[in-house]
Specification:
single chain, 521 residues, alpha/beta, seven-stranded mixed sheet, five-stranded parallel sheet, 15 helices, 23 strands, globular, binds NADP nicotinamide-adenine-dinucleotide phosphate
């Protein structure tokens, strides 16, 4: 375990192979349980245009010169660096993020696990440096004219802007895909929880695994970073829908046609099937997972369940079961023994949660309010209930980024489940709990157009259930509409965002030669 920080320290950016402190007092990073100032961060005075040029001109060629197996070797080393310092990183996450130890593990182990997953995947790609999309297809009648598709690394920098709630996993999942694809990264974590990301950045640099220019890290606000984007860059953003919209509409992004991948807000839903009786294993799984999704990281998860639909006749039983389980979660300083939920990230976030509850309570009744200490980032969990989901417009519109969900009644049909889930206008993940295969299949397909992922909770797989909130590197993460219309991860699919798919047509012999040096992906 690390020594306590002698607060506040200055966390620095890593730009053009140097650590730089930035000018001025900077932003203050705090412990949301105690209000203690932990660190400051500033990007003022840093030449972000030069930082991007360095990444493109020095880091890009260095990474493209490596084959997939060599890039995978780097990822393996980076995963190892996180694992080796796990206890220290968990402690920082608990201090700066209001995380319980379990919350912190979810983030930090998620980071090392995702890097390790892509290290394994990359090793399997061997000595190739680019991917092939399908086989060559004949195009000519009289000549050996043919066509095929290749994925090659883009020649710019991957600019990775992340949200405050996953300071470790949030950038690691993007870095894993960008590096393996062959792009240098510019990592910009959210300032208020950047302490863990900064410590990992130091570990990465100290590991000497990264080629020069491959790694740039910004501790502090993005400043004019986006003004320096070029056409071959990729902007991968995770955060609120409002900031995501600004990114997309940024004049430089529009002018240069910069590729943008957005992961944003989400009003994830859980649907209980009509076959699930109170007390049955699937019912218990449903209750456990809804409560877990509401309270893990104090509800500050993009995948957290916000809307819960149960058959009308189960509304009262579901309410009683959820309230009973929610009441078991003790809220307090994560440093204290037995605390199951910490504070939200800041006093400002707490106020945002309260404003959100007031907004959604216009169409739903607050059925239960938990207990929480007062002050700093502490906020009480809330369960709201709406008999008529269609009359609860704000519930389907407002993401309350805290320990809050709304329980609603539906008629128990797969069609209505799909329609109500769709009122959220696009989610990262929605779940359906049922053991009736016919209902589950129909509900899944009805919900799928509105979700990046559908999670099925069933007795048969309950023993290994991970809950809808666990993002797996082998499955895509993202969602349509409000969720940003982006997509990440999904095994090799995750590399494609950092590569250009190019169709090639010409003599079959040339295409075969190109094919012989690539690998299917
Ligand atoms: P946010 O306020 O939108 O900030 C996200 C990131 O964007 C931060 O790094 C922030 O930097 C940066 N940023 C803000 N304005 C910018 C600008 N004009 N130019 C460049 N960068 C800018 O979001 P947040 O409060 O950190 O995170 C919470 C939100 O993220 C929630 O809505 C949640 O649903 C969403 N989220 C989504 C996913 C997903 O996978 N879909 C995952 C996690 C979180 P500073 O911190 O320096 O301001």
């Amino acid at each position: 375990m690390s020594e306590p920080l002698s607060a506040p320290i200055r966390i620095e950016s890593y730009v053009e192979e140097r650590w730089v402190a930035g000018e001025g007092p900077g932003s203050t990073l705090v412990n949301p349980a105690t209000g203690e100032a932990l660190a400051t961060a500033s990007t003022t005075g840093i030449d972000l245009g030069a930082a991007l040029r360095h990444a493109r001109e020095v880091g890009g060629p260095a990474l493209r010169a490596l084959n997939f197996a060599q890039r995978a070797g780097i990822l393996k080393g980076l995963a190892g660096a996180i694992k080796e310092h796990r206890d220290e990183l968990l402690s920082l996450a608990m201090k700066n993020g209001g995380n319980t130890k379990g919350d912190a593990k979810f983030d930090v182990d998620g980071a090392s696990g995702t890097l390790a997953f892509y290290a394994n995947l990359g090793r399997g790609l061997g000595e190739a440096r680019y991917l092939l999309d399908g086989e060559a297809v004949p195009l000519g009648r009289a000549t050996p004219l043919a066509g095929r598709h290749v994925w090659v690394p883009r020649r710019g920098a991957a600019v990775l802007v992340n949200a405050y709630n996953f300071p470790a996993w949030g950038f690691a999942e993007k870095v894993a895909c960008a590096f393996l694809a062959g792009m240098p990264v510019v990592v910009k974590p959210a300032t208020q929880t950047a302490l863990v990301a900064w410590r990992i950045a130091r570990l990465f640099v100290d590991s000497s695994l990264l080629p020069a220019g491959g790694w740039t890290f910004l501790a502090g606000p993005a400043g004019d970073l986006l003004d320096h984007l070029e056409a071959q860059d990729v902007l991968a953003f995770t955060g609120s829908a409002a900031t995501g919209a600004k990114m997309r509409a940024h004049p430089r992004v529009l002018e240069k046609g910069v590729r943008v991948n957005v992961e944003a807000d989400s009003l994830n839903a859980a649907v209980l099937g009509p076959d699930v009786a109170p007390g049955s294993p699937t019912w218990e799984l449903f209750v456990k997972e809804v409560v877990h999704e509401m309270t893990q990281k104090a509800g500050q998860k993009c995948t957290a369940t916000r809307r819960v639909f149960v058959p009308r006749e189960r509304l009262q039983a579901a309410r009683a079961a959820l309230v009973g389980k929610l009441g078991e979660v003790r809220v307090g300083d994560p440093a204290d023994e037995g605390v199951g939920m910490g504070p939200v990230v800041s006093d400002g976030q707490r106020r945002d949660v309260e404003a959100g509850v007031a907004e959604i309570a216009r169409g739903a009744a607050v059925a239960w309010t938990g207990e929480a200490p007062s002050g700093n980032g502490f906020v009480a969990a809330r369960l709201l209930v709406a008999e008529d989901p269609r009359a609860a417009a704000a519930v389907h519109r407002r993401e309350v980024f805290g320990p809050v969900a709304t329980l609603m009644a539906y008629d128990g049909t797969a069609e209505e489940a799909g329609e109500l889930v769709g009122l959220g206008e696009g989610s990262l993940v929605s779940s359906v709990y049922s053991d009736d295969a016919e209902f589950v299949a129909a509900a899944t397909l009805a919900m799928a157009p509105f979700n990046g992922r559908v999670y099925i909770g069933a007795a048969e797989v309950a023993a290994e259930a991970l809950g809808p909130g666990t993002v797996l590197p082998g499955l895509v993460h993202g969602g349509p509409g409000r969720a940003g219309s982006g997509e990440e991860l999904g095994g090799l699919r995750g590399l494609h965002h950092y590569m250009q798919r190019t169709a090639v047509q010409g003599p079959k012999a040339v295409l075969d030669r190109i094919g012989s040096e690539g690998v299917a992906g």
